[in-house]
Sequence to fold (961 residues):
Amino acid sequence: MSTLMEVPASKTKREVLDQAVIRFAGDSGDGMQVTGNQFTNTVALYGNDIATFPDYPAEIRAPAGTLPGVSGFQLHFSSGEVHTPGDSVDVLIAMNPAALKVNVTDLKPNGILIVNSDSFEESDLRKAKLTVNPLEDHSLDKFRVFPVELQRLTRVALQHLGLDAKASDRCKNFFALGMCYWLYNRSMEPTVRWIEDKFKKKPLLVEANKLALKAGYSYCEATEAFQISYEIPPAQLSPGLYRNLSGNQALAMGFVTAAQKAGLKLFLGSYPITPASDILHELSQYKNFGVLTFQAEDEIASITSAIGAAYSGALAITTTSGPGMALKTEALGLAVATELPLVICDIQRGGPSTGLPTKTEQADLLQALFGRNSEAPIPVLAAATPGDCFWIAVEASRIAIKYMVPVIVLSDGYLANGAEPWRIPNWDEIPAIDVKFATNPEGFQPYKRDPQTLARPWAVPGTRGLEHRIGGLEKQDVTGNINYEPLNHENMVRIRAAKVEAIVQDIPNQLPNGDPEGDLLIVSWGSTYGAITQAVSGQRAKGRKIGHLHLRYLHPLPGNIGDILKRYKKVLVPELNMGQLLWILRAKFLVNAVGLNKIQGRPFKQSELDQKIEEVLGL
Amino acid sequence: MTTTALPPLTKKDFQTDQEVRWCPGCGDYAILAAVQSVFPELGIPRENFVIVSGIGCSSRFPYYMHTFGFHTIHGRAPAVATGIKANRPDLEVWVVTGDGDALSIGGNHTMHMLRRNVGIKVLLFNNRIYGLTKGQYSPTSEFNKITKSTPFGSPDRPFNPVSLAIGAEATFVARSVDVFQSHLKDTLKAAAAHHGSAFVEILQNCNIFNDGAWTTLTEKEARSEQVLQLEHGKPLVYGRNRDKGIRRKLDGDIEVVQLGNGISESDLVLHDAHHPRPSYAFLLSHMEGRPGFPTPVGVFRAWDDLPRYEDVINEQVRQVIQKKGPGDLTKLLRAGDTWEVK
Fold:
């Protein structure tokens, strides 16, 4: 099969581009996520910078061919820096009329549209609620349309293997992938390796998928269908060893790393919930790092078991999404009152209630900051990119242990499933995490605090002479004895708040990107980092004086935020919610900031940001 | 860890300086005394005991025990305890809970902890009432009971805690009574000796909101006429004159029989607490509340052949390490396809 790996010289024209956006769209059973991930991995390995946007329905298999069943995977790859998956696409692969109908509005004029023409029968059109065949009514005339009989050609390529039609049809996504590799002059080798590994117990499927991939490639080669192919040279990333990483993978690896840095066992208590479950799946594979994963009976047991593990000396974490956060609320208060180290990850999705399980949103910020009974301050950190999830996991663990406090990490569906090239750090680039278990019974008191951090001692069961009682009832400082006296309660409430505020001493003052002062400051947090970075860079290239302050620490905020806000004439806060950070900034700093708010379960587009920036600047 | 031999522990070693805040006359005092006298006999270092509780009168228990103690939130003690035991199988973890805490708000955790056979001892203080919230009916209150929240009678059918635990296939299930001091201590010792989950229902009086909750069993006369003491390998006999017993019927059910007139102890059911299947223990648990039947106390079921949850998950870790070698972080971070940018 050696010819499979080679990229033969083509007779067709080859054009060098600096970037491209490609979207694979099909039925949720068509393997679009696998196809997209394979293409991503290949171009990342080649050295392009990338950003991805997987977009799939909540239903595992919505009725085949229907509009709600459409699953998509978008990839932006470039020889320059990439921060977003792109507003519109250069190449759209549509496996059926529903996928075409849902996605074609995002295809650029003159963009390449590859459609599976085998799926445009009367019944297919009906499922997509189309009355006329879009391949025939000239509605697609502004695109370069390539109808390909993906189903029939795949069957022909595999006919000698003796697979049934259904199994053969399942390989058609690899036929399409092969075509895309030809179109962008990419080697099939990484995908071949993946296929061989993935189906190693089913040699027939290895053969079938490899053949389908190769057939797609050869089809383009033989038919010269496209007349043109593209080349996108590698990007100039900062030197180092890279891998492709999604946000959920990064969180899982970050926590394993933090546990190793701290010399602790890692305990995950979790209950399956979209889009957080992959963290549980990832961590359950790392048992040789001493990781214990506990799939609890519910969200409440997942956090309370983690509290038990923290109490007994593990680095304990729990992972969930918004509805699960709501259920964990009372236990969060217990972790605050007992002052135990714990990291809670909320991978946000659209809400309220069950909402949009597979779509992204940033609307749990206020829940993270305030969603508990009484005064229960908790530090809140938010990851900016998929790769940043790794660093946020390490930082949250460090703060939790140093200050003996629960810490909330906010990620979202976009970061969780999106991927980017990630520079792999060396051991000594990762911050140290010091653990000091109490061991000396002499003068031991469960709530005697470190004067600098206000942390109480971590005194784990099994330590002779340190027997003591803790709990959710109000207690006296130092002794930890139950105490309901009015002034004691006020004192304890203030101490718990002061302890969280003390973390400011550990957070670097933050400098805005772009202009250090000027006409407009954009303040953001979470997964909007990429889109806003790209928009600010574009606007500054046009000579506009704009700074961008992206917050990773949301509670406590870095100490210099108030000063920075004063250096700009206007402040804009774009968020995928109704204006939650905006509300905080206005309340805390009395700044007349305005919001850009999008609540569609989707990330910002460049055009939306550009339009608002120009509006605020009065342009 | 020091290995110096320490003087043997005494009851006093398990008492704290905290003022006990249960109502005078509460059944909890007797249970506290029994636990404090049993713990020193177990040969376990004091620092290895962890008592975890939820919310309710019984859940104040950890404050009065000089061990590690964690007073958590309502219903969640079994889940917190599971986290402790999973992380530290070497610790001796006891959960103290009540009928509302364990069977109402925390029913889910109780059931799943028992299903997993986590090596935790659960003491469920059953006074058939919500005491700390001042007298509402609980999931073990009798049907039609008049309480603060049911002035016209409770419409709920009660749970039988022992049936529930056996239904969840708990590997150790027992019942004792606050005022049966020596029986209670023996039952606690039997629970302590069990490796897997041990569930002990302790019938307990609330002299403020449900006084006389169990007088039908605890009055002097009733003690022998209404209570059947279960002993493994012995026939099911009871009565002041040991003249009544439990016999199997042909249809598989059981009946109360009067001994004599051709019926002897050899006709009675021999108590088998070690049976691997829970059906027989379940049948026994259903005697309670059946007209004419006594209420069994003692060990219903003690089948200890099931591995403990904490051992299974930690063994899994050991096996994966053996197979793959201890985790190498550099390898983990560099796993999969990587590329170098110069």
